[in-house]
Write a structure and sequence with these properties.
With about 450 residues, this protein is of the alpha/beta class. The chain has a domain at about 20-215 and about 350-450: Rossmann fold (3-Layer(aba) Sandwich), CATH 3.40.50. Helix content is about 35%, strand content about 15%. Strand 8 (about 165-170), helix 3 (about 175-190) and strand 9 form a beta-alpha-beta unit. The radius of gyration is 22 Å and the shape is globular. It starts with a helix and ends in a 10-residue tail after the last helix. The relative contact order is 0.14. The protein binds 2-acetamido-2-deoxy-beta-D-glucopyranose (3 copies). One 2-acetamido-2-deoxy-beta-D-glucopyranose (NAG) binds near residues 245 and 275.
Length: about 450
Amino acid sequence: MVLAALIPFLFTYTTRHTDTLEVTHVRNLNCGAGDNTVTNGYVHLQNGHMFFSLFEGKNEAKDNGLVIQFEGGPGATAFDYPFIGAGPCQLTPDGEPSLSGLSPSPHPWTDHANLLVVDYPIGTGWSYNTSEQNPASTSDKAAEEFDDFLQVILKQWRQFQSQPLIMSTLSYGGTTGAHIAATVLKRNNAVKDQLFPRRVIKQFDQLIFGNPFADAMSEIYTQWDVLCDSEPKAYNQTVCNNMRNNLTICLDKLRYLDEVESTQELRKDAIQHCVQSPELRFEAPAYNRYHRSRPKCWPPNTCFWWMDKLTEMMNSQETRDWLGITQDVERWWYAGPAMFRFINTADVLQSAYKLLRPVLESGTRLLVHSGMEDTMVMPSGTASWMRRLPNPQLKAFRSSETRQVSNELMTGTVINPGSDYSLISVKEAGHIVIETHPAVLQAMVKEAVKGENYDPSR
Ligand SMILES: *[C@@H]1O[C@H](CO)[C@@H](O)[C@H](O)[C@H]1NC(C)=O
Ligand SMILES: *[C@@H]1O[C@H](CO)[C@@H](O)[C@H](O)[C@H]1NC(C)=O
Ligand SMILES: *[C@@H]1O[C@H](CO)[C@@H](O)[C@H](O)[C@H]1NC(C)=O
């Protein structure tokens, strides 16, 4: 009798209790410079299944801290960084595009920290949802899914609850990352007076944002400045005139979205005046917009030498088996279905940087780096929102000069060096700084787990 009464209860409990972790495989990655433990798996959430790989820090580095890396897009996979320099083994232009063809990375993050890469949001890379599941299509809702994911991770690997926690993102990760940091803080604050909260209360110690897209408005006007009003010019006069003619209408619409109301319909209406078509972005420019001093690239998968190699490696049976990928994912794409979901909601037209105010006020550090040759996310647009984001360091940041730096790792500039709110611009780097300057990124990770923003002027 009692058992019969319990069965429906147990059933609802197990079907509803979806925040579970499944380790698919613990593997050893050895490309000729020692053993590296990699734990692969899914976190099963109500709305979908998030895939991750945890690259364990080398020797004592496994006690130093956790760096969580995800990408932009939105919908771009996180599995580029671990194989182009952040992980212990990397692809090379001459090497085979397979796990056994990898070479030791010269400056892996795993020398200084644990590296967790996650395909986020759901529908990115190896992360997926079934047809009954309805994952978020906007960065505010997706941040709640990330928080659920993070809770599962922190409960599984309890040591990370007391180690420094770093979020590292690229590009659109400036928008999704700002939402995540704000959501984690908000949910922590909601239970902070509870005696026995069910959640792990853990804040990010540092955010490392690479070429972050975090404010549509700054991006859009600096786009015109950089692409059409400075040398070398990206476009001919016809395209530039169109851009200029759209600029005022676009900014008017963005201000309404920002100051009055933001609905999907209004955002979509603004898109045609504010956002370039893929052809204009990739095919029409005179150069590679991810790196201005390189020739133009079309189709977009030719913009980075490693893009096709990574795609081939990821989709090989060897890699699928190694990671333990489910049959539910047919194919790995650099940009997954999540991208189309987010495009449909015009999520891009927002000013997510503002969400960082309470995060920075609560003590999280922000280190931003920009490759100066990038024209996808304009370094000048990044400097613009950083100069008006209220936070304890804003005065110091605004009065800090742009200091020239040249050390053994990089040449470039830094604003407000060594503080908790700092902007580093790297000369000769493009959209993906790790591609050309892996040692600088490694130095950022090394200092981050020690509790500091990397200072290139020291
Ligand atoms: C994921 O969810 C969407 C709805 O948001 C649905 O249209 C799609 O079919 C689902 N994906 C898969 C792979 O079934
Ligand atoms: C701007 O205007 C032109 C012509 O009026 C149009 O073709 C173009 O797509 C618009 N959008 C952008 C972002 O330039
Ligand atoms: C300017 O560039 C656009 C996009 O590549 C092209 O369609 C157009 O024909 C060009 N116009 C002139 C006058 O060269």
